[in-house]
Amino acid sequence: MRTPQQFLDSLDDGREVYYRGRKVENVAKHPVVGVAARHAAKLFSFERGFPSEELGEEVSQYYRFPRGAADLMARHKLVYDTTMRCNGVFNISQAIGSDALFALTAVSKKVDAAAGTDYSGRVRDYYRHVATKDLTVAVAQTDVKGDRSKRPHEQPDRDAYLHVDEVTDDGIVVSGAKAHTTQGAVSEEVIAIPTRAMSERDADYALACAVPANARGLKFIVRPIDELEGNSSNVLSGKDFELETLTIFDRVKVPRERVFMLREHAFAGALAVTFATYHRFTAVSYRAATSNLFIGATSLAAKANGIQDASHVRDNLQLVIMYKELMRMSAIAAAQTYVEDGGLAIPNPLYTNIGKLYSNQNFGRVVDALNDTAGGIVSTMPAQEDIDNPEEHGYISKYMTAATSGDERIAVMKMAKELAASSFTGYLLSLMIHAEGSVQASKLALIRDYNLTEAEALVNGVLGAKPAEKRP
Ligand SMILES: Cc1cc2nc3c(=O)[nH]c(=O)nc-3n(C[C@H](O)[C@H](O)[C@H](O)COP(=O)(O)OP(=O)(O)OC[C@H]3O[C@@H](n4cnc5c(N)ncnc54)[C@H](O)[C@@H]3O)c2cc1C
User: Hey, is 398 helix, strand or coil?
Assistant: First the structure.
């Protein structure tokens, strides 16, 4: 198991990263990108070890294959606790990579059985490489996709989806780009998997592979971190945030042993969905922890304003508590009623997707609840520079005084502002809808897999055997 510093040192590996139009020489030392690197590094200061029988040594618990309900419950707790220790901000560093490795393990066996390939052995070797070296892994699933009404092979620019350019003696060459890759620029490995089901004509896009983050031709363009740079009174983003990248593959060479799917189009959908199910289980687990930020800020803002006993404020708090606990309930239900697949426990997709959908559809109300409780001050409070200016501080503190001292209320309202009325709020509003798959993706999964037989039989029973004949 590595230390935070060993991890940070490993990021100085010649990777190609851009931030606000400039190349970043060393991501860990960059004033902004470095915060995301140090956030990732926190993982290495936590107790994560478990003795792996498969690998014959102690590795991170993130790389523990879930074999049943107890393992999934432990994984839920691991993700939840890690998020809490990172100030309520998800730490994706080994979570998403292990989600992808579990999905690759399940699906590669099926591809091998159908197509006579040897992907499962390669996945096992790569798993050993990642787990025993305690590496962090970003997952690039979401392609840039071009015109959404067109399938991959119909796109005018074939780079809209990651695809194989060339098969060489020792591997493949791939091109295209993936969007929104969380922590791409500060991870050590990148796994690419398909974003959707593929038809035969999309075979070149049915591709899964892994490369180190410093692979030649791999380029990361980091999103602007407005929550840190545009809010001088931030209290959270200076400590923890995760970045996303536009991840460009410009003729990246992938050695054969790191290719896990190549043109087996019939299995692209299964890989996309199995990964999504694991990753949404991770999502409801971290989102439950992140919700504590909103519960805590709503409660403290109410107390600072002296309104904690008002009925509408209690309603606000109840709404945010329910949001959190529904995430948790869905994770627990999904773990307890897991689906067995070749010795792996996959979280129950129905309960996972219901939790994820609830999160998608109700996060806006959580933000509303905090805004309503905190008051307009979250939009209009003076900047940190004013709060720090001795000429102004006395006035600001005096006029911020409510049920608590002015300085105490300023501290709480800075947090409320960051959560409910800042660039970070905008980022979170988008994240809670799109990250870990769109609303539509969860709805489709829910309806597609729902067994309607029991409910229809009940209604048919009430109506009689042939309800249509009874009508006039
Ligand atoms: C903060 C954040 C972090 C993320 N992290 C990762 C990550 O680490 N790795 C990763 O791979 N991805 C990541 N994602 C990507 C995430 O999974 C996608 O944002 C999500 O799947 C939606 O895809 P999109 O953004 O391309 O939206 P779009 O697909 O462009 O969706 C926009 C709208 O178009 C609709 N739409 C799309 N296609 C069609 C169609 N054919 N017909 C009708 N309607 C359509 C959608 O339903 C939606 O309403 C992240 C996203 C966010 C916001």
Answer: helix
Ligand 1 atom showing the smallest separation from residue 439 Cα: 47
Pick the closest to residue 352 from 179, 89, 99, 141 (CA basis). Answer: 99
The answer on pLDDT for 470 being more than 70 is no
Nearest to 192 by CA among 168, 163, 170, 217: 163
| pLDDT for the residue 207 | 98
pLDDT of residue 446: 85
Residue 115 CB burial class (10 angstroms; 0-12, 13-18, ≥19): middle
Q: What is the pTM of this model?
A: 0.96
Instruction: Tell how far the Cα of 86 is from the centroid of ligand 1, in angstroms.
Output: 26
All domains in the chain, ordered by first residue: 4-70+87-266 (2.40.110.10), 271-451 (1.20.140.10)
> What is the predicted pLDDT for the residue at 1?
84
Residue nearest to atom 29 of ligand 1 (CA): 148
Is residue 30 scored above 90 in pLDDT? yes
Whose CA is closest to atom 31 on ligand 1? 438
pLDDT number for residue 449? 82
Cα 444–366–433 angle (5° rounding)? Answer: 30
Q: How far apart are the CA of 430 and the centre of ligand 1, in A?
A: 10
DSSP E strand stretches across 111-241: 137-140, 163-167, 171-182, 189-192, 207-212, 218-222
